[in-house]
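Researcher: Here's the sequence for the chain we discussed earlier.
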Amino acid sequence: MIRLENPEMFYLFLLVPLMVLGFLVYRLVRRRVVRKFGMENLVAQMTPSASSTRVWLKFILIILAVSSMTMAAVNPKTGSRLAEGKLEGFDIVVALDVSRSMMAQDVRPSRMERARLAVNRLIDQLEKDRIGIVVFAGVAHTQVPLTSDHNAAKMILSTVNTNSVSIQGTAIESAIDRALLAFPDDESNNKSIILVSDGESHEDDPLAAARRAESRGVVIHTVGIGSREGAPIPIIENNQITGFFRDDEGNTVISRYDEQTLRAIAQATGGIFRHGTGANMGLDEILQEIRSLDKETYDAVVFADYESRYHYFAALALLLLIAEMLIMSRKNKYLSKIRIFD
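Model: Thanks. This is the structure I predict for it:
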């Protein structure tokens, strides 16, 4: 397991293209100056000790040294020891709708983006709870198995979008069944599913899945995202809206969120329904409801120690800078017979 102590330091890598651009401009200006004195081949004969290869090599070493120093500033840390322990918390699986209708922009910037940001905020509020993520459209996939590693869950969540599932649709029943598979098969009462969707389910029977969840003691809380008026589903190419989806008759498809279905799913399991509004989309209230239950104890394997690895990159940067200083810009008359450089 790798953690980054200072991920914001990655911005220092922006220095690399600036240095390359500056070096190329310097070489171009120098070449033009040389041409003022005469033809390049004659100037080369007058300065036989000059080596263009060495100049490029020295520059590459400097670039590599800067990159190594940047990684040292980021300070990657690796887990060095695994430890087994017992943690006390809740098991929560988020079933996130990634169907095409989630691209509708009746919630800004889009249903998909707002839902993902709200789930990210939810994960930030978790303590020793385990989190899992299921994404669904026409079918459902487990994106994050139940885990206490919240950083890993957030990293994977950041990659989720409407292309995460290739088969389109909104199969809520499949999503609930897939979420149920994430829970351990025991008698604990701390299992909750948070279903975030616009609720437009046309493929299956979500209430049948809700009854199966209720029989296993799993509570489903639902968050409806979208407006009652609905909105067209944009076609986005190169980050630009190029049109809207149309039905077989050429009419623009309007996606409306189905409050009735989402409310019925929550009621069937004793959960609560919230219409997703505000920054937290109602997830704060749902988390409060989950925490009103008794916590359960579960076994977990975690990294107990993390060790900094910045010194490896710092040492590499030092070696690269020493190598750059030892390589002379001009050819050495004593080493000219050794054909290492041109």
